[in-house]
């Protein structure tokens, strides 16, 4: 129950993260923000936002867990084999996965990138079943597919037109799904010899550092980061989004560690419901349509199928 609750709260916090990011982007679309070139808008700004939020998450995790006396264990774990495994998970989920997702959006469109990248729970469950030997029943597989289908219904918006980079964009979106699904499984494997709080701190520090000091210089993204910094409202919302993202990832790692990847990812994917609801409540452009309601229902049914075993729920031992 504790692991499931951690997964559900992680989904809620990721929905809050989505709200803060949306509000931050609202400031970037104002008249005072320098639009610049197409590359600046489609790649520089999104990757600068990712670098900023992951760095904020890393700093918040370091402060939180240092205050709990975990700084030395974190430093020591960096040098171990398990620490290197978590570093691999961080690189896949952060720099490689996030960069691929941004490239997928810029080349194939946000809707198409969303559809492909939202397949990450299926990737994660396949890897968990074959590598970690975590049992996944037919009922759980059905719930996973319903959750993925629901997230697609909630987030999909038809897009007109296309460009010559469409197929490459789809490929990048697929890479992001593979990376995010792999991250959860590799992280669970690495957490055999450490607590999730140490693992998530390593994850965020590695991801934020690589994005800020390697990825951004490679794409010449510092002007975008500077522009965000000078746009006060956007900068504050992105910092808040990073802190919330750190907490969300921390609980997601705990859930995957305690109840397995299938249940952890099924609980986490409820972020699509919270993100839509919060943006609607705060008047941030979200609409509650029939497809959105149907998608939310599918996600909820999927989560119940994955996390609740009817045989145990109605057994005499549980009554």
Task: Describe it.
- The structure is a single chain.
- The protein is mainly α and 319 residues long.
- It is 80% helix and 0% strand.
- The protein is built from 15 helices and no strands.
- Helix 3 packs across helix 9 and helix 5 runs parallel beside helix 8.
- The longest helix is centred in the N-terminal third of the chain and has 30 residues.
- The C terminus is likely disordered.
- Topology order in helix (H) and strand (E) letters: HHHHHHHHHHHHHHH
Secondary structure category: mainly alpha
**Taking Cα atoms only, what radius of gyration do you get, to the nearest Å?**
19 Å
The N- and C-terminal alpha carbons lie at a distance of 16 Å
- Helix share bin: over 70%
DSSP strand (E) fraction? under 5%
Low-confidence stretches: 313-319
Morphology call? globular
Count every helix, treating DSSP H or I runs of 4 or more residues as helices: 15
Number of strands: 0
Q: Main beta sheet, described?
A: none
Mean pLDDT: 82
């Amino acid at each position: 129950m504790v692991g499931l609750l951690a997964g559900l709260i992680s989904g809620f916090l990721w929905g809050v993260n989505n709200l803060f990011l949306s509000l931050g982007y609202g400031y970037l679309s104002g008249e005072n923000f320098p639009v610049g070139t197409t590359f600046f808008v489609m790649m520089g700004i999104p990757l600068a936002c990712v670098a900023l939020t992951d760095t904020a998450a890393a700093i918040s995790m370091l402060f939180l867990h240092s205050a709990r006396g975990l700084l030395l264990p974190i430093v020591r774990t960096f040098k171990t084999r398990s620490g290197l495994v978590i570093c691999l998970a961080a690189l896949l989920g952060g720099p490689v996965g996030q960069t691929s997702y941004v490239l997928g959006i810029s080349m194939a469109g946000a809707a198409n990138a969303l559809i492909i990248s939202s397949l990450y729970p299926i990737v994660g469950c396949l890897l968990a079943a074959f590598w970690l030997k975590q049992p996944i029943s037919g009922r759980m597989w059905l719930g996973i597919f319903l959750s993925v289908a629901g997230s697609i219904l909630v987030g999909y918006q038809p897009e007109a037109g296309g460009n010559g980079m469409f197929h490459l964009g789809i490929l990048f979106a697929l890479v992001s799904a593979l990376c995010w699904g792999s991250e959860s499984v590799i992280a669970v494997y690495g957490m055999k010899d450490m607590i999730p709080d140490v693992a998530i701190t390593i994850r965020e520090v590695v991801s934020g550092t690589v994005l800020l000091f390697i990825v951004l210089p490679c794409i010449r993204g510092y002007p975008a980061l500077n522009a965000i910094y000078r746009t006060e409202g956007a900068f504050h919302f992105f910092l808040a989004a990073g802190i919330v993202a750190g907490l969300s990832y921390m609980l997601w790692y705990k859930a995957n560690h305690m109840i397995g990847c299938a249940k952890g990812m099924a609980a986490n994917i409820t972020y699509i419901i919270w993100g839509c609801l919060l943006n609607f409540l705060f008047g941030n452009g979200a609409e509650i349509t029939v497809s959105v309601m149907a998608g939310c229902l599918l996600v909820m049914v999927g989560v119940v199928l994955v996390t609740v075993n009817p045989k145990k729920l109605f057994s005499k031992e549980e009554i």
